[in-house]
Amino acid sequence: MGRRVRIAAVAAHFGRDVGQCLTKVEAILADARDRGVQLLVFPDATIGGYLGDLGRGDDTGLPPALDAGSTELARVTEAAGDLVVCLGYRESAGGQHYNSAVCVTGDGVLGRHRKVHQPAGELPAYAPGGAFTAFDTPLGRIGMLIDYDKTFPEAARTLAGDGAQVLACLSAWPASLTDRAPRLVQDRQSRLFDLYDCARAAENQVVWVSANQTGTMGRLRFLGQSKVVGPGGDVLARTWAKAGLALADVDVAGEVGRARTVLDHLRERRPEAYS
């Protein structure tokens, strides 16, 4: 038996009030610590919330922008202590704004990611990131994606190829705006959200940690459905549409190694045939 890691994906609502967001983060962190969590993944836009209406190009209703050295992120880092914590925020850097994620412990920053793939409605609010890079943590090598990034197989595959055995996907994923269903479980985006989570885990044979917002922001109604998925594409824990923690104990190296014993998708790729 290898080392088991207690992993939790957060489903919760985070709005514009930064102070309230930080208080909620600290409360969830305290609860997770009491429950023995070692890796805690928050949704996209944890600090200050997501956009309220895709396509708005002015500053009305946009999330507050924080620089990488902000006191707000320092407060989260201090609260993290011995936990490995991933969370999202709107980053200000070099005159641009990015939809960003950071991974921290109490000792400091372990890794960063800027959302690369953007739905059209995000373009006025964010500049795109330009890379997918895994990083080392006390719990092993991890990669991060944000929201729409998971729609593109190359994103998760790049991180897995860079040695990540755990992929954390931070989302503010809403129900469909163009084809609303009477119930979230019937929504097209709800189905796709779950499909991508399971497919990316299975095709890369990694542990997938998917955190998503709940509640509403402007016209957007977020799905929740946070989950932990094993390297065979099996859902190990989930929150459904409600707020809460999807919590699972996983022997990450053992489960990934077992999944790759006979069929190793990364090793058996044929890049020369894909051009």
Automatic annotation (TrEMBL):
Q: What keywords is this UniProt entry annotated with?
A: Hydrolase
Q: Kindly give the Gene3D superfamilies that the UniProt entry links to this protein.
A: Carbon-nitrogen hydrolase
Ranges for domain CN hydrolase come to 5-252
Q: Which domain of life is it from?
A: Bacteria
Q: Which GO terms describe its molecular function?
A: hydrolase activity, acting on carbon-nitrogen (but not peptide) bonds, in linear amides
List, alphabetically, the Pfam families matched.
CN_hydrolase
Q: Which PROSITE patterns match?
A: CN_HYDROLASE
Q: Which InterPro entries match?
A: Aliph_Amidase/BUP, C-N_Hydrolase, C-N_Hydrolase_sf
Q: Which CDD domains match?
A: nitrilase
Specify whether Nucleotide-binding is a keyword of the entry.
no
Identification of the protein by name = Carbon-nitrogen hydrolase family protein
Organism listed in the record: Modestobacter muralis
